[in-house]
Design brief:
Layout: H1 2-24, E1 28-35, E2 38-39, E3 44-46, E4 51-53, E5 59-63, E6 70-74, E7 79-80, E8 82-84, E9 87-89, E10 91-93, E11 104-108, E12 115-121, H2 129-149, E13 154-159, H3 171-178, E14 185-187, H4 201-204, H5 206-212, E15 217-221, E16 224-228, E17 232-234, E18 241-243, H6 247-257, E19 265-269, H7 276-280, H8 293-299, E20 304-309, E21 316-321, E22 324-328, E23 349-356, E24 359-366, E25 376-378, E26 390-393, E27 402-407, E28 410-414, E29 416-420, H9 423-430, H10 432-435, E30 445-451, E31 460-465, E32 471-476
Parallel strand pairs: 1-11, 12-13, 13-14, 16-19, 19-20, 20-22
Antiparallel strand pairs: 1-2, 1-5, 3-4, 3-6, 6-10, 7-11, 8-9, 12-23, 15-16, 17-18, 21-22, 23-24, 25-26, 26-30, 27-28, 27-31, 29-30, 31-32
Helix pairs in contact: 2-3
């Protein structure tokens, strides 16, 4: 008798379950990911805390964390999201207590992204209309170069932050200007993109999120996995911040990478370098390096990882080990739009990366120059450190490059590397009428080389070979 009484009860529960779910699980959100009206399974969906995969029907369900502000995708290889004025729209802002269903529409990438190219810019730092005009000149160099060298591959951009100089009101102008590129640009927040004056770190990125979406996220191209994160931690003391990755972000990175095969090519995009101390070999402020970078390295240990950063206004590459390398990218604005070279002598420019399957090549493109302009020669008497020597600055150098010199066509050997100041950068930064700001100083760099020419020899050739076997040459005549 009892079983007959229970049967109608269970049937009622089964019938009402979909409706009860709506009212009982107010922290649950769900939806579908589709393309051309068809479900897309196996897509990672996240609220910035948890990560789930869409099922065979393209559906997902997330138990929303109370701190979540967005629900968004790690767009899979072979697909693209909508792109509005260079901003990839892979996310929805969560409307708490109002909406529980968030669907996503993806599009088939019209280009095979197994091979793809991307450019990296850093520290545009717009503060005025004049800066915007100069930035437009910069983009007129970048756009045709990327179009002519991408060979029909998928192309996108990465901005390593400091898009504006403590001027969030210029975000709309920055967006308008970059929209001429007609390609998605994935952005990370820089310290000068933060909103100051709030009571917490969380407030500091609120304006950025209003324009560009989540402060950390990932996407996929071909065999490459890209993670963009915020390591500018506002400490609420005037304009003070430190380089730091909070636990929420590190935990999310681990969950995100759990869907990525070990040994894969992984890119980490952030503003502040991971370790300036290791890169420059002298003590630095916590504003110039990520204080808990070792935790990030540990998360990346099973991958072929490349960290791409900005912030410093100089260019530098460093190999930490066989599977971890960092590329610190020079500033678009040069010396804060007062000079077209950076504080280490690197000309204003951008990084160019080409991914072919799971292999990677890169170079640095100087604005206004052909892409074979990879170093500068200074004549004898240019550097205070070595007044009798010829000086060479090889701005994209790393330990696998070779810098050699010839006299009258005869190989004399490799030039001697040293840490010092680029002669022109030192001159520019000390000219306060030119740079205006007292706090601008030249930066020591480790990509300088010197040799003492033989007396009576007036034909010197410098030959530089990069890690990929490309050879660049320049000549200088001695007096």
């Amino acid at each position: 008798m009892r079983q007959y009484l229970l049967k109608p009860f269970f049937l009622t529960i089964v019938f009402l379950y979909p409706f009860l779910k709506i009212f009982s699980y107010e922290n649950d959100i769900w939806g579908k990911v589709y393309c051309d009206g068809k479900a897309v399974p196996g897509v990672v969906v996240t609220d910035g805390f948890s990560c789930v995969l869409t099922d065979d029907n393209g559906s997902y369900n997330l138990n929303l964390d109370k701190g979540a502000r967005f629900v968004y995708l790690s767009v899979p290889s072979g697909f693209i999201s909508n792109n509005q004025n260079s901003i990839p729209k892979f996310y929805h802002r969560i409307v708490n207590g109002v909406k529980n269903v968030y669907d996503f529409c993806l599009y088939r990438n019209p280009k095979n992204d197994l091979n793809h190219s991307f450019f990296v810019q850093a520290d545009v730092q717009l503060t005025s209309k004049d800066d915007l005009n100069q930035y437009e000149t910069f983009l007129r160099d970048l756009l045709p170069y990327m179009e002519s060298t991408s060979f029909g591959q998928d192309v996108f951009g990465i901005d390593c932050g400091d898009m504006v100089g403590d001027s969030p009101f210029l975000f709309p102008e920055y967006i308008r200007t970059t929209s001429v590129l007609n390609m998605p640009i994935y952005r990370t927040i820089g310290n000068h993109d933060m909103t100051y004056g709030g009571r917490t770190f969380e407030y500091s990125y609120s304006t950025f999120e209003d324009y560009f979406g989540p402060i950390y996220y990932s996407f996929n191209k071909g065999k490459g996995h890209y993670i963009v994160l915020d390591n500018c931690f506002y400490v609420n003391r005037d304009y003070q911040y430190i380089g730091y990755i909070d636990e929420k972000t590190l935990s999310w990175i681990q969950k995100d990478l759990s869907f990525v095969s070990k040994g894969s090519l992984v890119f980490i995009i952030m503003h502040i370098p991971s370790s300036s101390t290791k890169i420059l070999r002298y003590n630095s402020l916590l504003q110039d390096e990520t204080s808990n970078a070792s935790s990030l390295y540990q998360v990346l240990k099973d991958y072929n990882a490349h960290i791409i950063t900005g912030h410093t206004h100089f260019n530098l590459n460093v190999c930490f080990n066989d599977s971890l390398m960092e590329h610190n990218t020079a500033a678009v604005c040069g010396t804060w739009w007062k000079s077209d070279i950076c504080v280490d002598g690197t000309p204003s420019g951008y990084g160019v990366y080409r991914v072919i399957g799971d292999s990677l090549k890169w170079c640095y493109k100087c604005v206004g120059h052909l892409d074979d302009y990879q170093f500068k020669i200074y004549p004898v008497g240019s550097a205070d450190e070595y007044p009798s020597d010829i000086i060479v600055n090889v701005w994209n150098w790393d330990e696998m490059w070779k810098v050699e010199w010839y006299e009258n066509g005869e190989l004399k050997g490799e030039m001697k590397r040293y840490i010092g100041y680029d002669p022109e950068a030192k001159r520019v930064c000390l000219d306060k009428k030119k740079v205006l700001y007292d706090w601008i100083v030249p930066a020591k760099t480790g990509h300088l080389f010197h040799i003492t020419p033989t007396k009576g020899i007036n034909n010197i050739e410098v030959r530089v070979t990069d890690r990929f076997g490309n050879i660049y040459t320049q000549f200088i005549e001695t007096k």
